[in-house]
Every structure is written in C-alpha cells, then in structure tokens.
C-alpha cells in the first residue's frame, strides 16, 4: 500500500511467490505448495486509491479432494461414538453405537407425496423418527433417538442446552427424537479425544460445506439464514463454491479488528484454503426487511436454520471477511462480498 507516485517500485512474479521491491525494502508473499502462478499471464497492473496495487493473473491449484457430506462421519459399524458440545467440549452423549446415517428428504416432501398420490397420503401424521442406532441428517441438523439412552422421555418442543456453557445445542421435537444442529456438536469415535477447533473456524467451515452441498444438490444459490425462532438474520447468495483464498501473514492496517473472533492464521506464513464466495445482506435491527420478505415468498430461495446465537456469529464472521477485502472489492451492487472458508 504505497503512497501513489511516491517511489519507484518493482513487481516480481515467479510460479511460487509474488514480491514487491521499493527503496525502503522488499516484501514477498510465499504461496502454498499446492498453488502455482503463471507469470506470463499478468495483466492490468494498476494503483487503486486507498486499495494499493491491483493485478490479475492466472493461478493453477491442485484439485482439492472431493468433499464428503458434513456429517457422514460414522463409517465403521459397531463403533461407539461420543457427542461433544463444540463450544466447550462437554460430553452430551457418551459411547453411542451408530450403525446408519440416513439423509432426510427435502423439507417439502410431505406436500410432494400429496401431489403424486392418487389415494390418501400413506405418510400423513407419521413423521420420520430414527431408531436407536440410527441418525438422520437434514440441511443443518441431525436427528437422534435419545429415549432409551437417557432412560426417560424428554419433553417435546424444548431446547437442549449444554450443561456447562449453556449454549443451545438443539431441541427435542418429540418424546423420542432430538434435533442437534451441526454447528453446535462434534461427533468423535469414543477412543479419540475432543478436538479443539476455534469456534469461528468451525462455524464457517460447517456452514460453507452445508451451503455448497445444498446448492449443488438442489440447484439453488440464494438462502435465508434464520434462527430457530423463525427470524431471518442474513440474506446470502452463493457466487462461487470453488474459490481458493490465500492470506499473507500481514493484514492491511485498515482492517477492522474483531476481538470476539479468534485469529487462526500463523504468525509467519501464508495459508491457502478452499472457500465459498458469497454476497450477503444483514437483516438485524429491521434492516432489509422488504427484500427479506420477498425472498421468503420466493420458492427458489432456500431457508437454512441455525440457533439464533450462531446466526449472529455467522454474521460477524462474514463482516470480518468483508472488512479484510480491499475497499473496491467489498461490494457488488447493493450486497456485501465475503468468503466462507472450508
């Protein structure tokens, strides 16, 4: 970010790094091992006021491994699993044998059956419930049978709260079935220890993978992020689900600090990761109410439900990502731009 016209500058590009040399010194950005630049493709080198230097060039990255469904974790039958609160590590369910992970149909499956059947709906008033050693996966949650595990019938329509940190983990939807949100629970084989993952990193990774899977499976790109209370917090539009983000060790001085979120980058290295590029609009404090109402009535927009507190965390993560971008790249039309890292 030199002052415009203040000094001569030499830009050097090799397949593995990008360097900027001035009379005051040299700065080099090392690229991750899986990324290679094409120096001859460099175009459009220019200085943009308040942004610094911009250039466009081609990069080649090794194909990332195929994403597996977020909660397709129980791969070995007869193995026992433990459920942890992701926020604090408290054990929620210990040594639970899980034999099958079954995907739930889309949320409108009941009405579709009604349209297709020429006789009374055979599934009417028969909600889908998992058996003792099964769990069902939805868009942002999974269902487990806790009746025999707890030794008592949980009350329906009540929140499930972590005993230690008091975070909402899910809710009991019947006397047999409990819903846990994917952003709140970690499932591990019982012989393994609890993995410590920074909260913001976990939330954006799970959310990015869920949204990418939904977008691919249902050919939809617009989502309303809403709390379990039905309130819409974010309007989100997926632009690219195959982005790759590289961050250098130093951030621009103008980046807004978010002390509530962890800084997960190394002190002396560049990091690269797959990411989903999105447009978003916040809907808190009565903002964008009219557009949110239009999106809720649009059948091409898919709703994505999380605990209300997690919706606010996600909005903070998006805001931090937006603030890290150059000023000229933070907005597209009336939307804000952000990256959700996988």
Automatic annotation (TrEMBL):
It holds the Pfam family HECT_2. This is E3 ubiquitin-protein ligase E3D. E3 ubiquitin-protein ligase which accepts ubiquitin from specific E2 ubiquitin-conjugating enzymes, and transfers it to substrates, generally promoting their degradation by the proteasome. Independently of its E3 ubiquitin-protein ligase activity, acts as an inhibitor of CPSF3 endonuclease activity by blocking CPSF3 active site. InterPro entries: UBQ-conj_enz_E2-bd_prot. It comes from the Eukaryota. PANTHER family: E3 UBIQUITIN-PROTEIN LIGASE E3D (PTHR31531:SF2), E3 UBIQUITIN-PROTEIN LIGASE E3D FAMILY MEMBER (PTHR31531). Its EC number is 2.3.2.26. It catalyses: S-ubiquitinyl-[E2 ubiquitin-conjugating enzyme]-L-cysteine + [acceptor protein]-L-lysine = [E2 ubiquitin-conjugating enzyme]-L-cysteine + N(6)-ubiquitinyl-[acceptor protein]-L-lysine. Coiled coil: none annotated. GO terms for molecular function: cyclin binding; ribonuclease inhibitor activity; ubiquitin conjugating enzyme binding; ubiquitin protein ligase activity. One of its GO terms (cellular component) is ubiquitin ligase complex. GO terms for biological process: proteasome-mediated ubiquitin-dependent protein catabolic process; protein autoubiquitination; protein monoubiquitination; protein polyubiquitination. Interacts with UBE2C/UbcH10 (E2 ubiquitin-conjugating enzyme). In vitro, interacts with cyclin-B.
């Amino acid at each position: 970010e030199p002052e415009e016209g203040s000094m001569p500058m030499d830009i050097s590009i090799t397949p593995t790094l990008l360097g900027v040399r001035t009379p005051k010194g040299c700065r080099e950005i090392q690229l991750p091992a899986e990324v290679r630049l094409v120096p001859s493709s460099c175009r459009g080198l220019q200085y943009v006021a308040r942004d610094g230097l911009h250039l466009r060039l081609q990069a080649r990255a090794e194909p990332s491994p195929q994403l597996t469904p977020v909660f397709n974790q129980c791969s070995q039958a007869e193995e026992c699993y433990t459920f942890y609160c992701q926020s604090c590590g408290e054990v929620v369910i210990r040594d639970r044998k899980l034999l099958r992970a079954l995907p739930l149909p889309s949320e409108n499956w009941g009405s579709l059956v009604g349209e297709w059947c020429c006789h009374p709906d055979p599934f009417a008033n028969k909600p889908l419930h998992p058996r003792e050693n099964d769990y069902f996966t939805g868009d942002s949650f999974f269902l487990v049978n806790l009746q025999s595990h707890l030794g008592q019938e949980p009350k329906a329509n009540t929140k499930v709260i972590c005993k230690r940190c008091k975070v909402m983990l899910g809710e009991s939807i019947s006397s047999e079935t409990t819903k846990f949100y994917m952003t709140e629970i970690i499932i591990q084989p019982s012989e393994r220890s609890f993995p410590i993952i920074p909260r913001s990193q976990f939330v954006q990774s799970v959310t990015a993978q869920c949204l990418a899977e939904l977008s691919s499976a249902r050919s939809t790109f617009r989502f309303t992020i809403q709390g379990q209370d039905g309130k819409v917090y974010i309007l989100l539009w997926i632009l690219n689900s195959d982005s790759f983000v590289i961050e250098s060790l130093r951030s621009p001085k103008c980046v807004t600090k978010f002390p509530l979120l962890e800084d997960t980058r190394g002190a002396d290295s560049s990091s690269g990761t797959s990411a989903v590029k999105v447009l978003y609009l916040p809907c808190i404090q009565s903002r964008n109410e009219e557009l949110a109402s239009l999106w809720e009535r649009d059948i091409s927009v898919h709703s994505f439900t999380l605990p209300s507190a997690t919706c606010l965390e996600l909005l903070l993560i998006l805001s931090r990502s937006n603030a890290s971008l150059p000023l000229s790249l933070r907005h597209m039309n009336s939307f804000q731009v952000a990256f959700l890292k996988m």
